[in-house]
Amino acid sequence: MQDEADLRNYFTHEMLDKAVRLWTRSSIAIIDVRNSKIHSDKPLKHYRFPSSMLIFTYGGAAIIQLDQISYQSEQFTLIHGGKGTELTIHPTDAILQTYMIFYKAEAAPFYKRDVHRLLEHINPFIQVFGFSPNNPIFFMEQFEEIHTRWGERNSLHQFHAKILFYQLVHRMYEELYKEDVQFIEPDYVEWVKQYLDQHYREPISIQHLTEMLPLSRSMLSKLFKQQEKKSLQEYLIEKRLEAAKKYLLNSKATIQEIAAGCGFVDELNLIRMFKKHVRMTPSDYRRKKIPYNINCDIDNDSHYSYNEGGLDKLAKFKGDGELFMFGQKKSRDFIIVAAMSLMLLLSACGSSTPSHSGGEASSSPTQTQPTSDAGKKTGETAAQTRIIKTIYGDVEVPVNPERVGIWVYEQEIHSLGKTPVSISSGSYQNVWPDITVFSYAPDKEALMALDPDLLITYDDENFYNEYKSIAPVVNIPLATSSEDTLRLIGDLLNLSDKADEIIQQFNEQVEESKKLLEQSNALGKTAVLIEPLADDVWFFDNAYGRGGNILYEYLEFVIPDLVKEKMGDKHFMNVSFEVLPQYCHADYIVVVTGEGYDRLKEKEIWKSIPAVKNNRVIEFDGSVLSGRGLDTQTLSHFTDSFTAIK
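^ thats the sequence. predicted structure below, dont judge the formating
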């Protein structure tokens, strides 16, 4: 379903004129007309359109899902979708009346060339949209009359039904031309909830969620909080905890196995979340709900309550596990204060910095005043800092950061020979198997425990505001060129010379690759970069990894105009399988492999694409290749793959 801006693009007078011309130049066949009632206790679920369809609902409000996006429908709604569109209708009221017209459109032989040219811009027969008509009575009566005529099974009456259908379509476009129709509003929060309900066991990135929706991360977070009275992260944790409780009570799985099966990073993360939200450990929960259950999990450290003389009984710790340093009924604030006190004490013990004359420790031992000579060593060994300008203002960073947390830019820090304390990409766990892997919304306490002195991530203001109290946050926009990104990170890590050396070597390799591409007649040709997911395909330019920067910035492949125009300044877009051929009209297709691609390969519409027929498909395995920054492995893979095609 197109977002609001996209709908405006498709329902301009120019695009509507092209759509109407396609209707007049196509042969329309009505396949069936149906009238049915949908009850609130028996909703229509996951109905897949067998053909193009026009649907009219009346008699009450409903929650309508089109291709898994939820919409709030009022009393009268007109819905259109192409073959393969998935529809779910949940009536809010007891009963909802529906009319459905199934139809098929084919290009009339005389207009075939004109039709194909128009289809490059718009295909009205597969468009997915819905709106509340300004004249609902006309539509209700017209659908009823079409249903009556069609049901008489007489050729003359069915011909009449087809005439009435054209009148119906004409009135629909009349309303769209007026530009005052009320499109049904997408309920993105409901879609996100359903996604989290289905995928909570997997590592979930809030950024990845927003990439699937026409909303910014901040807007999605705001809408979710308003509607659900809790944050996305809180909802996700609740889902995982609900699942963990079920397995604790209904299985003999260990805490470690339950943590892995419910989406937690590890068992310690599960234990922390249980203590925070359930006020007890998982083993305590299991023992209290299942009497006489003996368990030897890592968190088997339950304490008895205080009595008048002190602890009623003392837990005996054997082996590793979380330590109850401050008792079971400690507050979160007390823990943080105590942890910070311990960190300050350790910092003071490990530093040779002279104490103040008054004998008091500095209130900010990890920072110093910025100096104009930040790189010069003084008689003190305290860390020095400098000020750099970022998209969210000036940030004071250490001159020589040692403990760096990285999000997205793992390839850059790896090429510079620096080992971070945390990463966000699971694909780099082979490189740094012992490094902590965080999502795009890391647990603050877990991040603080790593004691980072610098955090580097993409342009996300929420991240900056949320974690700047833990360590300086430097946000690098995703659209920054690969070379500028590496230079900036090299400068932050005091490795500028190393960054310049990498850039020079990479550009020398690029020149060799371009010579090989020119010999293979591939240089300067068009290419699309796609990643098939559930029921649609995502297109990317140079800003979202997957080798896009190397493909378009360095090897000089060209994005087709139609794809570039639809992307706009978002750097990505998604389309349904049905319209894939018109957007994959390129010399080459670079496709990210995975389950989505495995499904797509079996579809006839994929096999019909010229680049596929001509074996001009380059596969990109994101689990093996970084596909970000100046990645020589991705460069070599693309060079070998393109030159191997005859």
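The radius of gyration is 30 Å.
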